[in-house]
Amino acid sequence: MLRQVTLDDIRPIGIGAGILGTGGGGNPYLGGLHLASIIREYGPQAIIDPFDLADDALCCVVGSIGAPTVSIEKLPEGTEMCRALRLLEEHIGRRFDAVAIAEIGGANSMQPLIGGLQAGIPTVDSDSMGRAFPEIQMSSFLFDTSATAAPLAMVDAADNAAVVPAAISDVWAEKIARNIAVSMGARAGLAGTIMTGAQVKAAGVHYTLSLAHRLGAQVIEAQAQKSDVPVVVAEALDGHVIFRGKISDVERRTTKGFARGKVKISGFNPMQHLPNTLGGPRGVLEIEFQNEFLIAYLNGDVIATTPDLICIVTEEEGEPVTTEALRYGTRVAVITVPAPPQLKSEAALAVVGPRAFGYDVAFSPLPGGVIGLRPRD
């Protein structure tokens, strides 16, 4: 597993986290530029194995909250993660020993590295999703545990700051935080979900930062070898390439602090020479998203749903395509990946399953999976 993150690690983490982010988590390229500037100032960030945490260590998650479409236009001031962290510490009257990753997706995989470096504490190689989700309560740290999303602290690029000391539920913590984020211009830094080391070890999706790094390195190597990069990605994540085609339509809007919409992908004609691809020459794949890709329809039939991962990458290079970067004419491959087991329990599916997003569809889990497994050193 990773023991530290240096400048050389940023690109592979960005690629891997962009793929695992299922379209969300913020733009990994911009996040990488930010992280690079912080590493140049402070040096490498220390990464801690979750099982090396003391049981009584105090941790929280940090990340950006808002719409990914806004993140490419409204750049951060640069210290939001650390300021939110310090504000939460001031509220509870105690320093944190480490920061965990809210979601491994996109730029939000890097925010805990930035915040940890600025605060002088390590980042835990564990997140709460093994992918990205649009709402705070969609977190394995909150399923079947005593941890709560609130208290939480939020700051924006100016000097605005807010503390939510309590909420009647994690869903209400999300509603309150989302409204604050909208008032802050649909982008803010957030620190919350306070946990002990024992809770992180029991509930986290572990080693996902290391997984993102390893996946990104495999993509870079496959690009150099002129390999079929989408197939390499699918094999690395125990997934499948389900479609290849060209983006033929995008419907996207930023509303209530989210990027919502759908993308239509028309299959290549002919497609017989393309490996691991479902659908005929006239196949059309439609994917609906709320920050992240949630459900995929092939010729009108559901073929994949949340919490399993639906990932879009460029067809030739295998680079991640996030929801804010969907463009007409882009040639892409779509990959489905089994979700980690933490997202498949009855309690988890009530929060992150298709019905939680309003789809009257039963979740049919993909077999297998590697997300959350301990890497071989």
Give the count of structural domains: 2
Name the CATH homologous superfamily of the largest domain: CV3147-like domain
Overall spatial form: globular
How much is the average pLDDT? 93
Number of strands: 16
Largest sheet: 9 strands, mixed
Low-confidence stretches: 270-281
For the record, give the distance between the C-alpha atoms at the N and C termini, rounded to a whole number: 6 Å
The fold-level CATH name of the largest domain is CV3147-like fold
Helix and strand sequence: EHHEEHHEHEEEHEHEHHEEEEEEEH
| C-alpha-based Rg, rounded | 19 Å
Give the helix proportion (percent range).
25-40%
How many H/I helical runs?
A: 10
- Second CATH tier, the architecture of the largest domain: 3-Layer(aba) Sandwich
Computed structural class: alpha+beta
| Proportion of residues in β-strands | 25-35%
Q: What is the class of the largest domain in the CATH system?
A: Alpha Beta
